[in-house]
């Protein structure tokens, strides 16, 4: 059973701080990794994708990938109250069906 | 360019009934996939359709079935509804072989 693990939280950070969200996965053949943000009652929204080892930056967001350690992370700099949401880590299954395997999500609370 | 649209937004059914959920793919996308998200969990892959054929299925029983039409829109059918089928049902479309997935707004199904 291929799995994606996240700490469910909640992770609480003060406004302006860096939030660090982590994810581990079991499928060594996976090549594509994604972070989705989900506000309460809404559908997941893609915020980052990463395919190669290292860092990828997009505005206040940085995704980090280490395939050897099977570890993906998301850093949110200058956290804002509007960043308060559940963050879902998703890994594309290596079986070539296009299937995404999701973690259960980490709830982030940014306090003013 | 329109995104993925789903209907209805909300639905209440009684245990044992049947339900059909609908999804219109993003323009140019030939693949549609369906996910079930129970409260507090990450989305779970139900199945994927490519060119009107199912080409991947998750761990869901046969009472979950689907269709993809020539215009790439899709339906998810669930027979003999159970209380545990209460969830947010998400549809996503993509171009086969390419990531990432963008979800529609979802259908919230409540089974009583």
Architecture overview:
The complex is a heterodimer of chains A (112) and B (112). Chain A is 0% helix and 53% strand. In chain A, a hairpin with a 6-residue loop joins β4 (33-38) and β5 (45-50). Chain A is built from no helices and 11 strands. In chain A, strands 2, 4, 5, 9, 10 and 11 form a 6-stranded mixed β-sheet that branches. By secondary structure, chain A is mainly beta. The relative contact order of chain A is 0.35. By secondary structure, chain B is mainly β. Helices cover 0% and strands 51% of the residues of chain B. Chain B has strands at 5-7, 10-13, 19-24, 31-37, 44-50, 53-57, 64-68, 74-78, 87-94, 102-103, 107-111. The N and C termini of chain B lie far apart (38 Å). The model of chain B has no long low-confidence stretch (mean pLDDT 92).
Task: Walk me through the topology.
The complex is a heterodimer of chains A (112) and B (112).
Chain A: E1 4-5, E2 11-14, E3 19-25, E4 33-38, E5 45-50, E6 54-58, E7 61-66, E8 71-76, E9 85-92, E10 100-102, E11 106-111
Parallel strand pairs in A: 2-11
Antiparallel strand pairs in A: 1-3, 3-8, 4-5, 4-9, 6-7, 7-8, 9-10, 9-11
Chain B: E1 5-7, E2 10-13, E3 19-24, E4 31-37, E5 44-50, E6 53-57, E7 64-68, E8 74-78, E9 87-94, E10 102-103, E11 107-111
Parallel strand pairs in B: 2-11
Antiparallel strand pairs in B: 1-3, 3-8, 4-5, 4-9, 5-6, 7-8, 9-10, 9-11
Average pLDDT taken over every residue of chain A: 95
Which structural class matches the secondary elements of chain B?
mainly beta
Structural class of chain A: mainly beta
Query: What summary fits the major beta sheet of chain B?
Result: 7 strands, mixed
Cα-atom radius of gyration of chain B: 13 Å
- What is the number of helical segments of chain A per DSSP (H or I, 4+ residues)? 0
Can you tell me the residue ranges of chain B where pLDDT is under 50 for at least 5 consecutive residues? none
Low-confidence stretches of chain A: none
Strand content of chain B: over 45%
**Terminal CA distance of chain A:** 40 Å
Which overall shape of chain A is indicated by the principal axes computed on the Cα atoms? globular
Binned, the helix content of chain B reads under 10%
């Amino acid at each position: 059973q291929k799995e994606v693990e996240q700490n469910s939280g909640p992770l609480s950070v003060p406004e302006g701080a860096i939030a660090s969200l982590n994810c581990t996965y079991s499928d060594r053949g996976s090549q594509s990794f994604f972070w989705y943000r989900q506000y309460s009652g809404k559908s997941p929204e893609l915020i980052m994708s990463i395919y190669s080892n290292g860092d990828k930056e997009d505005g206040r967001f940085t995704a980090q990938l280490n395939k050897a350690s099977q570890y993906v992370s998301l850093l949110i700099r200058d956290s804002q109250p509007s960043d308060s949401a559940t963050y879902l880590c998703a890994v594309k299954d290596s079986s070539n069906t296009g299937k995404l395997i999701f973690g259960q999500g980490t709830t982030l609370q940014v306090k003013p | 360019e329109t995104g993925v649209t789903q209907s209805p937004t909300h639905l209440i059914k009684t245990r044992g009934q049947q339900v059909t959920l609908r999804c219109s793919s993003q323009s140019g996308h030939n693949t549609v996939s369906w996910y079930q998200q129970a409260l507090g969990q990450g989305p779970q892959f139900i199945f994927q359709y490519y060119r009107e054929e199912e080409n991947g299925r998750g761990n869901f029983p046969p009472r979950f079935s689907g269709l993809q039409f020539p215009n790439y829109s899709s339906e998810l059918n669930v027979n003999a509804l159970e209380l545990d089928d209460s969830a947010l049902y998400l549809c996503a479309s993509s171009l086969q072989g390419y990531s990432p997935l963008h979800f529609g707004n979802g259908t919230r199904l409540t089974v009583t």
